[in-house]
From TrEMBL:
<dbReference type="GO" id="GO:0009251">
    <property type="term" value="P:glucan catabolic process"/>
</dbReference>
<dbReference type="InterPro" id="IPR050546">
    <property type="entry name" value="Glycosyl_Hydrlase_16"/>
</dbReference>
<dbReference type="InterPro" id="IPR013320">
    <property type="entry name" value="ConA-like_dom_sf"/>
</dbReference>
<dbReference type="Pfam" id="PF26113">
    <property type="entry name" value="GH16_XgeA"/>
</dbReference>
<protein>
    <submittedName>
        <fullName>Putative endo-1,3(4)-beta-glucanase</fullName>
    </submittedName>
</protein>
<keyword id="KW-0732">Signal</keyword>
<feature type="signal peptide">
    <location>
        <begin position="1"/>
        <end position="20"/>
    </location>
</feature>
Length: 338
């Protein structure tokens, strides 16, 4: 019987370089406590701003989210979605589209987080789904983006953000992991004007993960020890058998898609306590800016821009006037019985 619910955080029981890490359950989120264990934020981390990235959003508190159908708990499953019914005016100042920024009240440092999804947000021009963790005093305590992308991207693009090298030392991704590296340096201020811009952090493309935008969902696991941070991603039916164990042994999980570890990074210094977030924003920076909307391919690789595909001159215009396009833009989180 699975030992995790919608999200499991397991405390580290044994860790050393010569032996596999073994874990035991220390925290669960399920349909009975999800609505009380998470804050439904109405702003970003900066209270005076609706969103940290200037997204075109109106984040809802838990009561309004329930009343409007943006969040629901039914049949042991959690639904986190957006308003896909209201046609709005094309106005940068709003009113803006109702959506969610959900953040755990509990924080953790080191351990194992396993999350099972029954539905991933559909890729749509103007949309920017993310499942991630965040430390206080960003970026000085780090950020781990486990599921992220925007517009019509075809793959998951995880990223990590850390404080400047002068503060914590250099942090570079391990090249032994599976995913294709887009930018290697995790310093949030690093840029080389070829593969990395300031604010990008270290980023990869999970070209083989098979869960990006999947209507069937998938499974992700974040393993964090004093020496390393690893991210695993599996389509439904492809996760290791022992993932359902009460004491999962990660040594049998194979090569992670993302890895950050000593000596290329002092992860214990770069990452402080993290909270868990699910966010469903629209537009903002960089998703809705002129370059991304009118000049760059919507799928980040080839093909047409979002302006060409949608016929809308701006991201805000498209999001405001086409609510039905976002009906499948939601996270579905499983709740197995413990």
């Amino acid at each position: 019987m699975p030992s995790l619910i919608s999200c499991l955080v397991a405390g580290l029981a044994v860790v050393d370089r010569a032996a596999a890490a073994k874990y035991s359950l220390s925290k669960t989120y399920d349909s009975s406590n999800f609505l009380t264990e998470f804050h439904f934020r109405e702003t970003g981390t900066i209270p005076e701003r609706q969103d940290d990235n200037w997204s075109w959003v109106k984040y809802q508190n838990v009561n309004d989210a329930q009343e409007k159908g943006l969040v629901s708990v039914k049949d042991n499953k959690v639904y986190l979605g957006v308003d896909f019914k209201t046609t709005l005016e094309n106005n940068e100042k709003g009113p803006r589209r109702d959506t969610l920024r959900v953040q755990s009240k509990w924080s953790f440092k080191e351990g194992l987080v396993i999350t099972r999804f029954w539905h991933m947000p559909k890729p749509v021009c103007g949309a920017w789904p993310a499942y991630w963790t965040l430390g206080e005093d960003w970026p000085n305590n780090g950020e781990i983006d486990m599921y992220e992308g925007w517009n019509l991207h075809k793959v998951n693009k995880p990223a990590l953000h850390v404080a400047p090298e002068a503060r914590i030392g250099q942090c570079l991704l391990d090249r032994s992991a599976q995913a294709e590296i887009v930018s290697e340096n995790c310093d949030n201020k690093f840029e080389d004007r070829v593969r990395a811009w300031a604010g990008q952090g270290c980023q990869v493309e999970e070209v083989n993960d098979g869960i990006w935008g999947s209507p069937d969902g998938g499974i992700q696991a974040l393993e964090w020890t004093k020496d390393t941070i690893k991210l695993y991603t599996w389509p439904i039916g492809k996760a290791p058998d022992n993932i359902d164990s009460k004491n999962p042994d990660t040594s049998a999980w194979g090569t992670p898609s993302v890895q950050l570890s000593s000596p290329r990074c002092d992860t214990s210094r770069a990452f402080g306590n993290q909270t868990i977030l699910f966010t469903l924003p629209f537009c903002g920076e960089p998703v809705g800016n002129t370059q991304f909307w009118t000049q760059l391919p919507a799928d980040s690789k080839s093909g047409k821009t979002c302006k060409e595909i949608t016929g809308a001159d701006t991201c805000v215009k498209y999001v405001a006037e086409n609510p039905k396009e976002f009906e499948e833009f939601y996270f579905g989180i499983n709740d197995p019985v413990v």
